[in-house]
């Protein structure tokens, strides 16, 4: 058995969303990768956190991510500044900060802040505060970088690791139940995996939380992973045994976000300057069970399916063209594994573009799809830590 005092967290910092597994595979969270500057005191607070049911407290916390961050690894725009994050930041249209599509994650300050924020959330839910309202938190961290960055510049990984090391601090401000709580964060060990590769590991290792989607045959195949995110599409090649092929791997600096933005712009032009408030709201309209692809303009339902299909089809075509190129130039590929939140949105368009030309595989459990990297990263870290423990013995 692994040491029970050892805490492992795995954080997948996507351009659009943060996905994390904290302590166990059954404890996963997801929230928008959005920040906004806030004052130390804010309005619209939860009335009575003490009356919130235990199972709902984490949800309440995720709606009220109000904090100050301190870290020697951060630039002046972030160090010792106060922010709202996730849903709280989404409510503030002015000053919203999102991760650009072409960012270098290894050096991006917002990505680092989100890693620290996940650690702080885990801390307040698993550790006791001392008499000064402080928590000293240590954990093993499983983190991720795009394989194109790991492939092109080795110093990106070294820079990423150096920024995560050392001591960092998150202080929650008007966070229900944890007002003023300070968390000092130290990562005792950091494992960095290529995005997409960890997802194969998760699917190839069955356990009770993924038995319904696990596929052990992936470990004996050469897999082209097509991980579609909001800002990028990662396309690592994973050899038999789960080993990434950095020479053949690649990716695209495009994802679904820019295409969703174009859909919203065209809706505004076609439908009397109607503005969809966010990409999340747009997807909600598109996936509405009763009336999909409809908005209400002055109370009247208006369809936009033709607009959405044109832009999403274009996105899928660009991604498929890269898959097609890879398949023609990489020896012995056996399956294209489509994952990431974008794979859910683009599935019908990718299938149409492929037209059964190559063996495509999608993951049937749409709730687990966004967490495959974080879950696989957690499994990788757990096994490496267990191996270290056995070696010491």
Main sheet?
10 strands, mixed
Question: Tally the helices: what do you get?
Answer: 11
According to CATH, the fold-level topology of the largest domain is Nucleotidyltransferase, domain 5
Q: What is the spatial order of strands in the main beta sheet?
A: 3-2-1-8-10-9-5-6-4-7
Stretches with pLDDT under 50, minimum 5 residues:
none
Distance between the termini: 13 Å
- The CATH architecture of the largest domain can be given as 2-Layer Sandwich
Strand content: 25-35%
Average predicted local confidence, pLDDT:
92
Rg over C-alpha atoms, rounded to the nearest angstrom: 21 Å
CATH superfamily of the largest domain: ATPase, nucleotide binding domain
Order of helices and strands: EEEEHEEHEHEHHEEHEEEHHEEHEHEH
Explained architecture:
- This protein has 393 residues and is an alpha+beta fold.
- The chain folds into two domains: 8-197 and 372-392, Nucleotidyltransferase, domain 5; 215-362, Nucleotidyltransferase, domain 5.
- It contains eleven helices and 17 strands.
- The strands form three sheets. It has a ten-stranded mixed beta sheet with strand order 3-2-1-8-10-9-5-6-4-7. The protein has a five-stranded mixed beta sheet with strand order 13-12-11-16-17, sandwiched between helices.
- A hairpin with a 5-residue loop joins β2 and β3.
- α7 (257-270) packs antiparallel against α9 and α9 crosses α10.
- The chain is globular.
- The two termini are 13 Å apart.
- 42% of the residues are buried.
- The model has no long low-confidence stretch (mean pLDDT 92).
